[in-house]
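Discussion board: Methods & Data

I've been asked by a reviewer to show the raw model output for two of the constructs in my manuscript, not just the figures. I'm not sure how much to include, so I'm pasting the format here to get opinions. Each protein appears as its amino acid sequence followed by a line of discrete structure tokens. Is this the kind of thing reviewers expect to see in a supplement, or should I convert it first? Here is construct A:
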Amino acid sequence: MKSLIILASLCLCTLVSSKSFLFGGSQHTLVDDATPVPGDNPLIFCADPSDYILTIDNVDLDPNPPEKGKALQIKAKGNFTQTVDKDAYINLSVKYGLITLVNTKADLCEQMKEVDESCPLYGAKDFTKEVTLPKEIPPGTYTVLADAYTKDDEKVTCLKATVHFG
């Protein structure tokens, strides 16, 4: 579960987009009119991102779609328009079909250490991270929701990804 939280935090804060075992095979977004996150990735914003504290310029995955048992390179670039201090948090939900695998709240600043960042977060951020996806990814549909807030409950960003693989 820790790796899910860490990688969801990557996905989230420009620092981006791989819930290690969640991607692979063909990907299908369930919401047709959603705003996609710029770049080569399966991410969509939960709502209009113009009010979010984090402006995501792009998130690129290589390969996209990610492949089981192989390295996944994540490149992300964005800008924090307001300071995000300690006690910021991320609500993370991971579902396999209708079954909830993870539903947790994590310290956003602690998770950012996985990409060599620390709070306070402000201004332009740019990073590249590589993770290896496990070979043993069960086939099915996975839905991930990563919703981040400041300590004062201001929306930092909210991202979704729905992935299906066989």
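Construct B, same format:
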Amino acid sequence: MEAPFIPTTATLTHLRDDPIYKEEMPYEIWADNVSESTQRTNVELDIVPDCPLTDVRSLGDERPALEKWGFEWIFQDFPYDTGLHSADCVDLETAKQRDVLGRYLNTMSDFLREKLGCEKVLCWDWRVRRSKMTTPRKRPNIYSLKNEDGHDLRAVKINSSHIIHADGSPRFMQQVISTVVTQEEATWAEKGKYRARVLTVWRPLVDVVETDPLVCCDIRTLKDSDFEVVQKVMDESLEESMYLKRQKQHQWYWMSNQTRNDVIIMTVWDSRYPSSKSVAVPHCAIVLPKHAPNAKPRESIELRFVVWNAE
């Protein structure tokens, strides 16, 4: 049997380092209540080949760790007892969907308490993805949600993203925290009693990832200036993500043949460095140069947590 092909480089989609972003912030308009003549985005992307890529399975005991690298793969037997099996969970009748997702959120909350020693965890958002096996684009693919349930990204299977991104700017993450926690919880980090972090917890919903695997950048190779904050205009909100500009020192990692038992935890924001962009882990899906003709589309679920640890 032919050995699987393990790439050592990746083609990655970066934000173009364009002088225009010194004059106007990159933006994407996802709202439907705008005229057809409106320019939906000023984001221009560069598709960069031959970015260094390391398979964490080749590292032995020197694998990425959350505290130093910003991300970590942790084994967890897949919790089939929650009722979650595939991305089709978002197609369930509303009450059943809430029940399945609620049990999964509770399971992963317990997982974070156990593995990270968190005293309190709070999940406020999630995404379910099924890859459409698309190729990278020079501009973001902005589509309408007007025919979806409540215009809610959590209620649909969305495509994997090839644009390198971090899940929120420092300012936006602090705004989110202020709206989802109690007044007392909001002061814990300020008083130095607790360290608060925003974490993304990501896992496949297929037995083995054969297409569009996730790659992460080592935060030790980042500077704040490598990021640009991107405003995302929704129908009823203004959100901020971050896109990454190419720098040769960036180091990228992935896990070959990742299974549904291999959970990735990624840092988005940390109260120890509240204004820092470079604590957030840039990540994206990549198109593998080779895969089996009958390879299945990747399915995955990602949860957004606020977690607190005693200082």
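Answer (T.O., handling editor elsewhere):
This is acceptable in a supplement if you add a one-line summary per construct. For B, something like: The first helix runs from residue 66 to 69.
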